Each structure stands twice: as C-alpha cells, then as structure tokens.
C-alpha cells in the first residue's frame, strides 16, 4: 500500500512551519542576507514554537520528529529563508549521531539541554583537506588515560561560531582511514577550542559558517559515541538520514521560486498581455511544477524508508542529488522569467538562485551522491 496522506500531527506542524517561514523569516530574509547577520531572534522564536532541535526523542523531552516530518518542516522553513533554515536544521544534523549512537546517559546529557533553551550545535566532519573524502580526515584524538586529546581544524562548519556543543569526528590512527574514526561530543567552552575564519558566502548568508580549531582539547572518554572505530558508520548513517532533509530544503527554495515566478508572470505585462499568456512562459512554469512535484515524491520516499527502518542509502542520495539540481534549475528559470528585475535585489529570486547553489555542494556534493547511486547499480 502507498499512502501520501499526512497525519493530523504532520499537517499541524506543516502549517506551523509554513506560517513561521511566512511571518518570521521571509519578511527579514533580505536584510539578514544583505548584512550576513546571524538570525538569533529567529532561532529563539523557532525554539519557542517548537521548530528547533525537533530530532530530540520524546523520552528526552523533545518532539521526536521522524524523517518525513523533518522533511515537511525543512521544505517550509527553506521557502522562507535558506540561510535561517540551514541554521535551524544544522542542529538536527549535529544531534543525530547522539540520537542514533548515544547511550541513554549520553542522551540525557547531550540532548536534553536542547529542549530547555535555544542553543545550537555543529556537526564537525569536514576539514581543509577532507571534504568529499571524509574518511581522509586528519583531526587527531590521542587517548591519554580517561581522556582523548583532540588536535585539528574543521572547516565549513555550520553554526561553528555560535554553537554550544560540537559533534566531532576524529581519528585515533589516520592509517586506518574510516576504521580509525571516532565521534566525540565536545562542549564548546572546553579549553583549547577556538573559532577560526568565518566564510563570506555567495548565498545562505544568514547562516554562520566557520572554522573550528581544536588545540590540545581534553575530551572525556565518556563523551565518545559508541565504540572506538564506529564513528565513520555513525557519520554515514547520520547522512543517510539527513540528506532527504537537505533535498526537502532545496525543494522549499524551488517552490518559493516557482510561486514567485507564477505570481510575477500573472502581473507583468508585455506586448499588451501578461507574461503568463505566452506559451513559452507557460511551459517554463509547467517544467518548474514537474520538477518540484517529482522531487517531493523522491524526498518522501527516501524519508519514508528511513522511518520504516529500511535501508535508504540509494534513495537518500537520489533525493539529494535530484532535488538540489532541480532547485538550481527552477531558481535560474525564475530569474529568467523576472528578466532584468530578477537580476536585482528588489525581488527575492536572485537570492533563491544564490541559496540554491549551496544545496548542490553541502552535505555531500552531488558528484558524491552519484558515486553512491552508481555503486548501488554496479555492485
Ligand atoms: N551506512 C553505513 N555504512 C556505510 C555507508 C552508509 N551509508 N556508506 C559507506 N559505509 C561503509 C562501507 O560499507 C564501508 O564499510 P566496510 O569497511 O565495513 O566495508 C565503509 O563505510 C567505507 O565505505 P566506502 O569504501 O564507500 O568509503 P569511501 O571512502 O569510498 O567514501 C563516500 C564513501 C564518498 C560515500 C563518503 O566519503 C562520503 O559520503 N563523502 C561525502 C561526505 C559528506 O557528505 N560531507 C559533508 C559533511 S556534512 S555538511
């Protein structure tokens, strides 16, 4: 049986997130983007209405949102502002390894605080020399008694400069590649941690992207998630879970761009008729709808599999590559329909286009998704 209907709870949260995006994010999105300002007021409001850290399980005081609900929230938030959406959703990415691999005691310690106050967390995997080749990471964790001494640099870390807690992937022995990787939960006020360069980005400028530097940081062994050597699989399982959410986020940007283009095509008059009366424009709008609707089907399938406890690595990567690619196409076409006005900052479509670009790059570049997909076909 296939069922596309949402539960009452999902419909409620969809409306909540849609209203939040419309009322709290979209009206200030251009300002935060222009000034690359961090959206603390929006983060606090998101916490108040229950849209922050939604991944925290109910037994730890959270909403315990499943993968499909996360996707529904992501689509709505990103239709309001992708930079703010990334800020909010990066929290779930950073907390996911704890939800998946943490002990009951670790869940209380490291998840519960996120249900009590509006604080942020970062997923620290990427490094200057290890982006797509994540297993080549070099951040070193050397065991000394009941602590690991952590040394290394993480780069392109969302919420890096504003987080209270980091989920850090490090290696006990680089020669072991993925088998040497461990996951550590590290409070941001641990001595030896500093925030490095903040990126000045093309899009998603309301989000905070920085280096995080670890210099002789002593982390208790009890902060390790799972056994030694299991950190890599935890990272991969986390990404299988989060990539449909990224796909849904891209879908939110694409939908917002399509809605703006439809509206503009009905209003803008040329040659004595609205743009929408020209078949060339109608076909562009139709192609946008085809892409948005088919992307949502793939997103929901990838999330549904996850919620059934079924493998979704293949579908997760397809959803991520497809939805983020169509977001780039749809936003580019939206700019085209707006013409010269679309290229100005007087209308939101140029921002959608800039924001969409990052979706094809982060959380596994789309080339990486195609590696994953083709490995499934060829194995
Ligand atoms: N779930 C569980 N295990 C997985 C897995 C998954 N989704 N994907 C891979 N593995 C396992 C493999 O089965 C293999 O295990 P064994 O050693 O037991 O056989 C191990 O992990 C290594 O896998 P593989 O050989 O495929 O590793 P590669 O170094 O070739 O890398 C990719 C695989 C490219 C998929 C990985 O490096 C990747 O996802 N890179 C992108 C990283 C990323 O998304 N960065 C963004 C950070 S968050 S913004």
List keywords for this structure.
16% strand; single chain; alpha+beta; 379 residues; four-stranded mixed beta sheet; 53% helix; Butyryl-CoA Dehydrogenase, subunit A, domain 3; Butyryl-CoA Dehydrogenase, subunit A, domain 2; binds coenzyme a persulfide; 11 helices; globular; four-stranded antiparallel beta sheet; Butyryl-Coa Dehydrogenase, subunit A, domain 1; 3 domains
Brief description of this entry?
The chain is α+β, with helices and mostly antiparallel strands. It has three domains: 109 residues, Butyryl-Coa Dehydrogenase, subunit A, domain 1, CATH 1.10.540; 108 residues, Butyryl-CoA Dehydrogenase, subunit A, domain 2 (Beta Barrel); 147 residues, Butyryl-CoA Dehydrogenase, subunit A, domain 3. Helices cover 53% and strands 16% of the residues.
Could you give a short account of the major beta sheet? 4 strands, mixed
> The CATH topology of the largest domain, please?
Butyryl-CoA Dehydrogenase, subunit A, domain 3
Nearest-angstrom radius of gyration? 21 Å
Number of strands: 10
Biggest sheet: strand arrangement: 1-4-5-8
- Ions, cofactors and other bound molecules: coenzyme a persulfide
Note poorly predicted spans. none
Give the proportion of residues in helices: 40-55%
Number of domains: 3
């Amino acid at each position: 049986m296939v069922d596309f209907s949402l539960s009452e709870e999902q419909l409620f949260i969809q409306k909540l997130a849609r209203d939040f995006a419309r009322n709290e994010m979209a009206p200030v999105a251009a300002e935060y983007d222009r000034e690359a300002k961090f959206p603390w007021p929006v983060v606090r409001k998101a916490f108040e209405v229950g849209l922050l850290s939604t991944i925290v399980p109910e037994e730890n005081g959270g909403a315990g949102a499943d993968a499909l609900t996360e996707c529904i929230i992501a689509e709505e938030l990103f239709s309001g502002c992708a930079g703010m959406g990334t800020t909010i959703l990066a929290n779930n990415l950073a907390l996911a390894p704890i939800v998946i691999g943490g002990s009951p005691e670790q869940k209380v310690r490291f998840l519960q605080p996120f249900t009590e106050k509006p604080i942020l967390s970062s997923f620290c995997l990427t490094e200057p020399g290890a982006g797509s080749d994540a297993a080549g990471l070099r951040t070193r964790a050397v065991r000394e008694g009941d602590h690991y001494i952590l040394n290394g640099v993480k780069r392109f870390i969302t919420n890096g400069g504003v987080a209270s807690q980091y989920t850090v992937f490090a290696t006990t022995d680089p020669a072991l590649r993925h088998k040497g990787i461990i996951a550590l939960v590290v409070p941001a006020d641990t001595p030896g941690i500093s925030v490095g360069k903040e990126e000045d980005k093309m899009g998603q400028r309301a989000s905070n992207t920085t280096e995080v530097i670890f210099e002789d940081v002593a982390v208790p062994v009890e902060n390790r998630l799972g056994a030694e050597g299991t950190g890599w699989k935890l990272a991969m399982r986390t990404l299988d879970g989060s990539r449909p959410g990224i796909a849904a986020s891209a879908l939110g940007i694409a939908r917002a761009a399509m809605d703006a283009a439809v509206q503009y095509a009905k209003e803008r008059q040329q040659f004595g008729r609205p743009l929408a009366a020209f078949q060339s424009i109608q076909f562009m709008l139709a192609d946008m709808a085809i892409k948005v609707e088919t992307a949502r089907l793939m997103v929901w399938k990838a999330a549904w599999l996850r919620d059934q406890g079924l493998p979704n690595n293949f579908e997760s990567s397809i959803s991520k590559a497809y939805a983020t690619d169509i977001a780039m196409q749809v936003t580019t076409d939206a700019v085209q329909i707006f013409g010269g006005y679309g290229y100005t900052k007087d209308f939101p479509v140029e921002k959608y286009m800039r924001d969409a670009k990052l979706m094809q790059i982060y959380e596994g570049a789309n080339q990486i998704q195609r590696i994953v997909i083709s490995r499934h076909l060829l194995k």
